[in-house]
Amino acid sequence: MEPVEESGPALEMPLGIVVARIVVVSGMSFSAAFAIFFLVGGFWEVAGAAAGATVACLFLMFAIERAAER
Fold first, then answer.
1. Per residue in 11-68, pLDDT tens?
2. What is the DSSP letter of 12?
3. Banded model confidence at residue 4, pLDDT cuts 50, 70, 90
4. Does residue 43 sit in helix, strand or coil?
5. What is the pLDDT, as a whole number, of residue 5?
6. Whole-angstrom distance, CA of residue 53 vs CA of residue 55
7. Cα–Cα distance between 30 and 24 in angstroms, integer?
8. What stretch of H or E contains 52?
9. What is the dihedral of CA 3, 5, 9, 12, to 10 degrees?
10. Which value, to the nearest 10 degrees, does the dihedral of the CA atoms of residues 44, 34, 55, 11 take?
11. What is the pLDDT of residue 14?
């Protein structure tokens, strides 16, 4: 067997980026679950607000990933 070569130095992510990713993904999952829950329950306005929060979290995720690339 041939040894596996490293492609480059390992990049360390700042703690703030890691925490922001965890918070945004958790927020997006909770807001999506609430949107579905309220949509099934017939609370259209609340479901719409929760769906809006899901979309906001999605845009935040893209912004955080762009910041992490720098």
1. 787 888 899 999 999 999 999 999 999 999 999 999 999 999 999 999 999 999 998 8
2. P
3. low
4. coil
5. 66
6. 5
7. 10
8. helix 44-69
9. -60
10. 180
11. 83
Contact 53, 27 (CB under 8 A): yes
The one-letter amino acid at 40: V
What gap in Å lies between CA 64 and CA 61, rounded to an integer? 5
How far is Cα 33 from Cα 36, in angstroms, rounded to an integer? 5
50, 34 Cβ separation under 8 angstroms? yes
In this structure, what token pair is assigned to residue 18?
């890691």
Tokens of 31: 């807001």
